[in-house]
Design a protein that fits this description.
There is one protein chain. Helices cover 24% and strands 41% of the residues. By secondary structure, the chain is an alpha+beta fold. Strand 8 (185-191) and strand 9 form a beta hairpin.
Length: 311
Amino acid sequence: MIQKKLLTAVFVLCASVSLLHAQSGKEFSIPLDALKSWAENPTAMLNVKVTGHSRVHPVENDCEMHLGGQVTSYNGDPDGWVLEPMNVCVEPLPGTTTYSKAAWVRFADSLKNRTVTAKGIPRIWPEHLTSSGASNPAHAVELHPLLTLSDTGKSYDFSKLVYAPEGFSGGLKPETVTNILTGTTVSVTESEGRVNVNFESGRIGNFTTLSVRVLLATAEEINGSHRMDGEVILSQNQKVSVRLLTAAGSGINNTIAQLKQKGRKTATYDFLVLFSLDPVALYNAAKESKGQTVEVNKPLQLIVYGEGQPE
């Protein structure tokens, strides 16, 4: 009887551990046609109904503002979106010459409940799968950075605001960064045009500064932006292969174009980067799925903002 009870307890414990492991991942879905579009073009143009906005974040908290919204044509799960212009804590609102935090707030207030046309980098990252308010609805995809926005004939260009702000090197601890780079696993299952994504990692976050070797020979210009392969240098003996992306109009994007034109094969920098999943890798895996779960090879993409301050 004792042996039977022990076996039962072991079975229950194993089942509980298996269930805990199965539920430890983050799950969300993206339409296959959206992934295809973002794999072909690193920027997206969307009509977004703005639902609310955050305050202006101080530089130590990323110097951004969040504009929450909904995209009627998007049927991923969750279906929220967030638009994030960079350096709003130090840069004048485009179209003005003097910095004013109040001007940024008035601008964001004027957009509430309006549908705007926004262009930016689709950043896929399951950090906010549950809602924390109108400025941050449940979402797995953001336009981050936001590059342009048009509303009732007025246009705003934020692309020159994409750079590493002085005094901000990101907020992630080194062990968190290493875990994301070496311990993240992603799998996809495509069915009837919907791609279910399972994301396994520990604690995750947004920005950090990394030593990165850019493989310039692989750099491809797509509608002004550059997508290329790279290596994060964690130590002399540990390097992690990643996809790198620079946004059209940004200073670092212009630098990449110049280095490639000069025939440089590689370049190594300390970059301020934003973690993302790579839409190319996700789409390639989804194409092979046919209803089966497929592990994504080299799932990470780093959106490069510019030279940062080493921690």
